[in-house]
Specification:
By secondary structure, the chain is mainly alpha-helical. The chain has helices at residues 11-37, 40-47, 51-57, 62-83, 90-104, 108-121, 130-144, 153-173, 177-195, 198-203. The protein is built from ten helices and no strands.
Length: 220
């Protein structure tokens, strides 16, 4: 009698599913408790697997599975960042890239794994990477297109990259991340506006949704 809807799962697919289940469990644990507060036992308990399973897929243990979780979380940013390459204007790509990053900083998993723990655990995460290189290239393209005033793209990229990183840390540390993200995005836009050529600045429509800033209290 033929079974309907039944499909035999091969060993390779089963192994992929087991590995994915471990990574998902570890991601939840690292998001909730951070790297230092997460134990291998907690990951195994959440995944419902034996200790041997984790060391089969991740021989170096917690540090190796954290790296896998980091790569998964970091891919969310890179996928959204790379999708912006379809935008014709280099300056618009820079603006939107900053927005994507600062919006992701409101997410618990991205904040904890990518910004807080990864620089201490994953080699090279404290260095300038592909995002900086892409930013430098886009600045050079924006200069060539006349969208921003002539400047040194390398120095300017370092300044913008550092400012965005610090703004992200500000968002992560806030108890009201969405509000902090809106403020950070606005601040980064003002910095980019300062680079824009006069003609580009005149063509750029004023953005709505600005965050109101309370006037300073008068001290007598």
């Amino acid at each position: 009698m033929k079974r309907v809807g039944f499909r035999r799962v091969g060993r390779r697919e089963q192994a992929q599913q087991s590995r994915a289940a471990l990574v998902d469990a570890a991601r939840s644990c690292f998001t909730e408790s951070g790297y230092e507060g997460t134990t291998v036992a907690a990951i195994l308990d959440r995944a419902g697997m034996a200790r041997g399973a984790l060391y089969h897929y991740f021989p170096d243990g917690k540090r190796e599975i954290f790296t896998a979780v980091f790569e998964q979380a970091d891919d969310a940013f890179h996928e959204r960042r790379d999708a912006l390459l379809e935008i014709a204007s280099p300056l618009a790509r820079i603006r939107n890239g900053m927005r994507v990053f600062l919006e992701l900083c409101t997410r618990d998993d991205f904040a904890r794994i990518v910004l807080i723990d990864a620089p201490k655990i994953v080699p090279g995460q404290g260095d300038l990477g592909s995002t900086y290189e892409l930013l430098r290239e886009q600045l050079a393209m924006a200069i060539a297109a006349g969208e921003i005033e002539p400047c040194d793209p390398e120095v300017t990229a370092i300044a913008l990259h550092g400012a965005a990183r610090r703004a992200g840390e500000y968002v992560v540390a806030s108890k009201q991340r969405r509000r902090a993200s809106a403020r950070a995005i606005r601040s980064m836009e003002l910095m980019i506006d300062g680079l824009a050529a006069v003609e580009t600045r005149a063509r750029t429509p004023r953005r709505s949704g600005r965050v109101a800033v309370r006037p300073a209290r008068r001290v007598d």
